[in-house]
Amino acid sequence: MGRFSKMHGLGNDFVVIDAREGGVEMTAARAQAIADRHAGIGCDQLILIGPSERADVSMRIFNSDGSEVEACGNATRCVPLFVGRDVLIETKAGLLDAKAVDGGASVDMGAPRLDWDAIPLAYAMDTLAMPVSWEELPAPAAVNVGNPHVIFFCDDLDAVDVERLGPLIETDPLFPARVNVNFAQIIGENHIRLIVWERGAGLTRACGTGACATAVAAVRRKLVSGPAKVSLPGGDLVIDWRPGGHIVMTGPATHVFDGEADWARF
Ligand SMILES: N[C@@H](CCC[C@H](N)C(=O)O)C(=O)O
């Protein structure tokens, strides 16, 4: 039997497994089975906390479709709560410094990557005003914050058919690694409303890296000027980024319950 914790960041939910002293061997099929909301435990992402030679712990991230990915902002905020202290975390996206704050955590998410081949895109183009679009959507921006994001700044988010356009754009050949699709609207001074269709997980209540990527694109387009409040269906994050600097993400992290499972059954 193996122990796990159910946690979430703004309703983006995780099964977190402590693999610091060995434990479960994770495969795409096993991650998908555990994440299944009907036949498994259920989560948007499966998180494996392991040992690290470069940091306090390592973190591996699996989407609910079983794909292993580089970054997850909401899960990163859960790690100090899971480990019981501030931590330096080794991820595929680099080393992330996560500090507990009242009710959550503040994380240095590193510097965004903005070159077309770092997103990655299939061919060279300006990532701030991409000369492409889908149906009625405006020309998007692209930002890599460890994982790939495309961001559409819309006049009226309620008029966007997120569940139809999200998967269409996620799997467009323009994005060779697929992409997380962010639909944003500026709703006040330094205030962004955001809905995210996540690569490999679909519509979630919040996406931390999506909030980071969207705030970066908004600063680059001069739509915000300073720390931005990003309001997602599950709640709010504060994202602070200045050109040339690191992204700092601050927001809640919640521990829901602990459980035990026989990983061999998955
Ligand atoms: N929910 C996450 C992002 C998880 C990974 C993403 N779906 C991807 O495939 O890159 C977050 O809070 O950032």
Query: Which kinds of small molecule does this entry bind, naming each only once?
Result: the ligand N[C@@H](CCC[C@H](N)C(=O)O)C(=O)O
Measured by DSSP, the beta-strand proportion falls in: 35-45%
Main sheet specs: 17 strands, mixed
CATH class label of the largest domain: Alpha Beta
- Tally the structural domains: 2
Helix content: 10-25%
Radius of gyration: 18 Å
Total of DSSP H or I helical runs spanning 4+ residues: 4
Our measurement of the CA-to-CA distance between the termini, rounded to an integer number of angstroms, reads 12 Å
- Tally the beta strands: 17
Based on CA inertia axes, which overall geometry fits? globular
The CATH topology assignment of the largest domain is Diaminopimelate Epimerase, Chain A, domain 1
* The CATH architecture of the largest domain: Roll
- Structural class per helix/strand content? alpha+beta
The helix/strand series, from N terminus to C terminus, equals EEHEEEHEEEEEHEEEHEEEE
Q: Going by CATH, what is the homologous superfamily of the largest domain?
A: Diaminopimelate Epimerase, Chain A, domain 1
Instruction: Give the overall average pLDDT.
Output: 97
Runs with pLDDT <50, length 5+?
Answer: none
Keywords: Amino-acid biosynthesis, Cytoplasm, Isomerase, Lysine biosynthesis
Enzyme class: isomerase
Family: Belongs to the diaminopimelate epimerase family.
GO molecular function, one term: diaminopimelate epimerase activity
